């Protein structure tokens, strides 16, 4: 079997380091990402040396606003791991799912590992992982890095996704007027980007992301057409493009959590 690369991605404090340590034990290499003083950690999976685990820096978003975000994004879009395990803090789902929506948009196979399940269970909160998986369109596994449960299952899910190969990827779905604009941008991009990255770049170009604009080296005509699409959509929504995407991500996440989470208090109330 060829060496498989699985990246761990997540917010700071989501439990990435703890997960990485459980997966790799002492089998770790620590260095820096090229050109920046951001720590880079890589290790072999203890239970299968054909699998390399790359620990990405803790990030909240894939915008190019911090060295950590730039490093993570460059790695995902150029070195491209075979799969991503997205570690999210189950006690703080809403905030953590913001990055999840962006990771899924990279087109790289994603497994979501909902960490801190030991705390979630004690709190009485219930997260319906099956529903979450269905609504996100990716496998979701409940884990606790502290108690070492579920983590191997997350890796096995990732390996399974890699072996299965690319099937139709479903992305978080936004307001239909925004979706129409994103499809138009994808059309303008055509073969400028690999098909698997076209959703990611259409969203980034909609946001007027400087790094995406520089990287893609678009023709003047493409730039003009995309600028027009963005301006028209901003007029329709009466909001600027970047805020619009942020709002739509949060609308999607609110819908998800309403569907998948029952808080301990609500549960008790409904019984009384
Ligand atoms: C401290 N369950 C519980 N209960 N805690 C967890 C779990 C889990 O599944 N996973 C991680 N933690 P990192 P990033 C700490 O360090 O892996 C805890 O940033 C403390 N430290 O032990 O570092 C983990 O790499 C003193 O907690 O996250 C750590 O993503 C008191 O979550 C924290 C209490 O995990 C962050 C906790 C001196």
Q: What report would you give on this structure?
A:
The chain has 272 residues and is of the alpha/beta class. The protein folds into 2 domains: 4-164, P-loop containing nucleotide triphosphate hydrolases (Rossmann fold, 3-Layer(aba) Sandwich); 176-238, Helix Hairpins (Orthogonal Bundle). It is built from 12 helices and 9 strands. It has helices spanning 16-24, 67-79, 93-105, 117-123, 129-136, 151-164, 176-189, 198-206, 210-216, 220-237, 241-260, 264-271; strands at residues 4-10, 28-32, 39-45, 48-55, 83-89, 110-115, 126-127, 140-142, 261-262. The strands form 2 sheets. The protein has a 7-stranded mixed sheet with strand order 2-3-4-1-5-6-8, sandwiched between helices. The protein has a two-stranded antiparallel sheet with strand order 7-9. The N and C termini lie far apart (56 Å). It binds 3'-O-(N-methylanthraniloyl)guanosine-5'-diphosphate. Residues 10, 12-18, 58, 115-116, 118-119, 144-146 line the site of 3'-O-(N-methylanthraniloyl)guanosine-5'-diphosphate.
What structural keywords apply?
272 residues, binds 3'-O-(N-methylanthraniloyl)guanosine-5'-diphosphate, 17% strand, 2 domains, alpha/beta, two-stranded antiparallel ribbon, Rossmann fold
Task: Give the domain tally.
Answer: 2
Low-confidence stretches: 267-272
Radius of gyration: 19 Å
Give the overall shape, derived from the CA principal axes: globular
Ligand types: 3'-O-(N-methylanthraniloyl)guanosine-5'-diphosphate
Helix proportion: 40-55%
Terminal Cα span: 56 Å
> How many beta-strand runs?
9
Helices, by number, come to 12
Assigned CATH class of the largest domain: Alpha Beta
CATH superfamily of the largest domain: P-loop containing nucleotide triphosphate hydrolases
Any idea what the CATH architecture of the largest domain is? 3-Layer(aba) Sandwich
Task: Outline the biggest β-sheet.
Answer: 7 strands, mixed
Strand order of the largest sheet: 2-3-4-1-5-6-8
Query: Which sequence of SSEs, written as H and E, runs from N to C?
Result: EHEEEHEHEHEHEHHHHHHEH
- Beta-strand level of the residues, as a percent range? 15-25%
Structural class: alpha/beta
Would you tell me which CATH topology of the largest domain applies?
A: Rossmann fold
Average of per-residue pLDDT values: 92
């Amino acid at each position: 079997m060829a060496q498989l690369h699985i990246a761990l991605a997540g917010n700071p404090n989501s439990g990435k380091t703890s997960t990485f340590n459980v997966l790799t034990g002492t089998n770790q290499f620590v260095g820096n990402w090229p050109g920046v003083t951001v720590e880079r950690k890589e290790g072999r999976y203890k239970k299968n040396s054909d699998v390399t685990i790359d620990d990405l820096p803790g990030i909240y978003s894939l915008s190019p606003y911090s060295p950590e975000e730039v490093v993570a994004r460059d790695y995902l879009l150029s070195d491209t791991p075979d799969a991503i395990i997205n570690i999210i803090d189950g006690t703080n789902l809403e905030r953590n799912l913001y990055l999840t929506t962006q990771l899924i948009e990279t087109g790289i196979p994603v497994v979501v590992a909902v960490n801190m399940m030991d705390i979630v269970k004690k709190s009485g909160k219930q997260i319906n992982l099956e529903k979450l998986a269905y609504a996100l369109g990716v496998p979701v596994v409940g884990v606790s890095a502290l108690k070492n449960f579920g983590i191997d299952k997350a890796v096995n899910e990732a390996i399974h996704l890699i072996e299965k190969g690319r099937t139709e990827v479903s992305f978080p779905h936004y307001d239909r007027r925004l979706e129409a604009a994103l499809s138009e941008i994808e059309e303008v991009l055509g073969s400028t980007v690999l098909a698997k990255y076209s959703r990611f770049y259409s969203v980034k170009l909609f946001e007027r992301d400087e790094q995406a604009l520089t990287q893609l080296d678009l023709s003047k005509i493409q730039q003009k057409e995309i600028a027009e699409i963005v301006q028209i959509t901003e007029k329709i929504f009466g909001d600027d493009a970047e805020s619009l995407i942020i709002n739509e991500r949060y609308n999607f996440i609110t819908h998800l959590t309403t569907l998948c989470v029952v808080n301990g208090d609500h549960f008790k109330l409904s019984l009384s």
